[in-house]
Amino acid sequence: MSKYNELPMRELDLTKFHFDPKTATMSAEVSDLGISPNEDFIKPIYNDACDVGIAVRSDLTGRVEKFSFIDMDSDGEDVHGWWFAPVNPQCRVKRVLIIND
């Protein structure tokens, strides 16, 4: 999909994430990202599709990568984390985990 149909999204700070090069996974805790407990931080990515996700911005390069929601870790009562995959298949990061602390 091209940028004409992308919706504006809150951009999370890349420096708040840890990167595991062995698994190409970034992870961060919700509280470290400045997300308040009841904030709905997973947002629609496009205006013409049902994909939802997050955006992560590098202050160093200014580049923004978007990640689609793919799964949730839950015990049926509490949510422990959310998993995302890159929208851009060329992205070096293959998975993002945001931990519900």
Give descriptors for this structure.
about 100 residues, mainly beta, eight-stranded mixed β-sheet, 8 strands
SSE blueprint and pairings:
Elements lengths: L10 E3 L4 E3 L4 E5 L13 E2 L7 E6 L6 E11 L4 E8 L8 E5 L2
Parallel strand pairs: 1-5, 3-8
Antiparallel strand pairs: 2-3, 4-5, 5-6, 6-7, 7-8
Detailed description of the structure:
Helices cover 0% and strands 43% of the residues. With 101 residues, it is mainly β. The protein has one domain (3-99). Strands 1, 2, 3, 4, 5, 6, 7 and 8 form an 8-stranded mixed sheet that branches. A hairpin with a 4-residue loop joins strand 6 and strand 7. The mean pLDDT is 92.
- N- to C-terminal separation? 33 Å
Rounded to an integer in angstroms, the radius of gyration calculated over CA atoms is 13 Å
Count the domains. Answer: 1
Tell how many strands the DSSP assignment holds: 8
Measured as a percent range, the helix fraction is under 10%
| Residue windows where pLDDT falls under 50 for at least 5 positions | none
What is the 3D shape? globular
In short:
With 101 residues, the chain is mainly β. Helices cover 0% and strands 43% of the residues.
